[in-house]
Amino acid sequence: MTHVDWPELQRVATHEVGHQVVAQALGCRSIAVHVGLRAGRVDIHDPPADPVARAAIGLAGAAAELILANPAADPADLVRLAASADERFSAPDRALCDGVVIDVALAAHVLDILRRHWGAVRAEARAATLRAVEEAHRPAPAARRPGVVYLGD
Predict the structure, then answer these.
(1) CB-based contact 40:34 (threshold 8 Å)
(2) Which residues, other chains included, contact 151 with Cβ-Cβ below 8 Å and sequence gap of 6+?
(3) How confident is the model over 40-51, as pLDDT tens digits?
């Protein structure tokens, strides 16, 4: 049986759902969230053209983790985290922020969106966590040989 590090899984799911919620709030509609036991990703098929909106989405994962760890976190905390080498602000997240100054106003905007939708973030992160555990415990499909007909498919 696969070991599940529940706090880590909750952190990963909250991070990815943070991206999703901010992307949706900024008008993106085609979003897929993928959460595994140790990592996750969000695919946004209709990303915004505005670089500041893309930066807000990039910042949102780390912001969601910050709120999860400290509900009273303020925008300055998020600006400091983004300026550091902290792993919560990953290379793909940083890439979304290229060319945009991450200041207190942008950080406040992202934190505000997440706090307004925190109930949805928590619910969707919980669902993503459960899906990840279910997938991890699902038996691998049996190997199939070419040219063989399998009944029941």
Answers:
(1) yes
(2) none
(3) 999 999 999 999
